[in-house]
Amino acid sequence: MSRAVREVRSTPPIWRQWNLVWNFAQRDLKSKFKGSALGWAWSLVVPLATLAIYTVVFSVVFRMPPPQMGSGRDGLFVIWLFAGLTAWTFFASSINAGISGLIGTGALLKKIFFPAYAPVLGAMVAQGVQSLIELGLYLCVLLVLGNLGWTWLLVPFWAVLLVLFTSGLATALAVLNVHTRDLAHLVAVFLQLGFYATPIIYTLDYVPAERWGLPLRAMVEWSPISLFVETLRDLTYGLEVGSGTAWLGMAAWAAASLALGAWVHRRRGGDLGEEL
Fold it and tell me: 211 has which bridge partners?
């Protein structure tokens, strides 16, 4: 490729592409519940229905005991579960939406050039709006129950790290999926496995310390999504800051994910219109 072409195809800094990202986000938000009778009410109906199903299964059938709340109140499994589902849903839905969002811009990419991360981040922003609704509902319930503490002030910092981690991974996977379409199916399988490998519907105490010669509990505890799920619960449900190693772990995973996303985008993210 000539120098002139490389200059035309150079990717502007992300802060100069925010309007483009927001346009993709608006497109996704408008089409999300288009034509449905309940409209944006589905953003609450779907997670609440999922929550009700898991609550019946794991607090009535399997009798999963929840931890005590930070205020000293007896734990409520439905609230403890909601925290885990909120963090996980944002992560998994953003990954899937980013992959499909980039593929869906194939016709547009054939006509004009724009950074591959734009539709991916736009899909993440759209998903983030729904996740904010779910997080707000969760915090309102805790507020009604009197489970409020200064540790809530750290939730925005937690959210920034989760967004950075998810955006880097989503961008890398979306770009690689353009070149290898089987990747989307593999991601769906790994996300399903990851849900049950993350302490969302169970506590870490239920994970054996060792199994098959592996430190199984430590592997689950220090996986990236486990760190984000447990830290959110610490901040809002347990009213604790969380361990410093957990915060360092989240920051390290976020930095590694951003580095991976930038590297994949730089190496494989140019001229995707030819692949689409």
Answer: 214
Q: How confident is the model over 216-266, as pLDDT tens digits?
A: 888 888 899 999 999 999 999 999 998 899 999 999 999 999 999 989 988
Cβ–Cβ under 8 Å, residues 33 and 133: no
- Tracing tokens 């925010």 back to the chain, one arrives at 18
Tens of pLDDT, residue by residue over 100-140, are 888 877 777 677 777 788 888 888 888 888 888 889 888 98
Residues 6+ apart with CB under 8 A from 90: 127, 128, 131, 162, 166
Give the CA distances from residue 55 to residues 43, 52, 85, 226, 263, in Å, rounded to whole numbers and listed in that order: 19, 5, 12, 20, 41
Question: Could you tell me the pLDDT band of residue 7, with boundaries at 50, 70 and 90?
Answer: very low
In total, the chain counts a number of residues equal to 276
What is the C-alpha radius of gyration for the chain, rounded to an integer number of angstroms? 20
Token couple for 150: 């200064």
Instruction: Name the nearest CA neighbour of 28 among 123, 114, 134, 115.
Output: 123
Helix (H) or strand (E) segment spanning residue 118:
helix 117-144
Q: In sequence order, which residues have a C-beta less than 8 Å from that of residue 270 and are 6 or more positions away? A: 9, 11, 116
Burial class (CB in 10 A: 0-12, 13-18, 19+), 271: middle
- Which residues, in sequence order, are bridge partners of residue 214? 211
